């Protein structure tokens, strides 16, 4: 059943506007008496029925709440992804949302091939957020993950100082992901993945100075889009089941 995220709280009657309303009206050809699953800003999930439509709004009425509908993992996971080439970021955002990431942070690093000016950064963020929103609806999330503004290494390290932070580094040969996860038990994690060209030694050192834990994903060097999803999958498997 189609899922909608509301900016406010569920009430007896409410109106859907903006892009969601346009999609309902002109893509889905919504009509009165159709039923949808809605999620409000507090994560409450309910079923609601379309009562009326205008050219740019959809009016809905509350039917009932859905019990035991929370699909969110018990941990907060941020995927910090250094900008990859082409449309790989779109794929990473979509799959990270499906796997349970709370947010995705695009990161500029020394070996990133792509270069965005301020306008392009904003446009990309908006595009990636739309992809995240659609993925959240498709996979039945009860919270809408965010795609943050493109940031740099220093800002990343300072903003997430209260998280348990992992850096996946191909030159790490002492600490595996499994060993690292056995040593920590946190409610908030950040995983940092380098671009196609990898991370520089200076970047790795900066992260370590800010408390990042350097881990290995194995003997084989993974593509950046594989590494991010492999690390997220391992983390969710190890911590979500506890």
Protein traits:
single chain; 242 residues; alpha/beta; seven-stranded parallel β-sheet; five-stranded mixed β-sheet; 7 helices; 12 strands; 35% helix; elongated
Helix content: 25-40%
**Relative strand content:** 15-25%
Tell me about the largest β-sheet.
7 strands, parallel
Instruction: Please give the number of β-strands.
Output: 12
Radius of gyration equals 20 Å
User: What is the terminal-to-terminal distance?
Assistant: 30 Å
Q: Which structural class should the secondary elements be placed in? A: alpha/beta
- What is the count of DSSP helices, taking H or I runs of 4+ residues? 7
Q: What value does the average pLDDT take?
A: 92
Q: Which shape, going by the Cα principal axes? A: elongated
TL;DR?
This protein has 242 residues and is α/β, with parallel strands linked by helices.
Tell me about this structure.
There is one protein chain. With 242 residues, the chain is α/β, with parallel strands linked by helices. Helix content is 35%, strand content 25%. It contains 7 helices and 12 strands. The protein has helices at residues 18-27, 88-99, 118-139, 153-159, 177-183, 201-209, 224-240, and strands spanning 3-5, 13-16, 35-39, 45-53, 58-65, 76-82, 103-108, 146-147, 151-152, 164-168, 188-193, 213-215. The strands form 2 sheets. Strands 6, 7, 8, 9, 10, 11 and 12 form a 7-stranded parallel beta sheet that branches. A 5-stranded mixed beta sheet has the order 1-3-4-5-2. Strand 3 and strand 4 (45-53) form a beta hairpin. It is elongated. The model has no long low-confidence stretch (mean pLDDT 92).
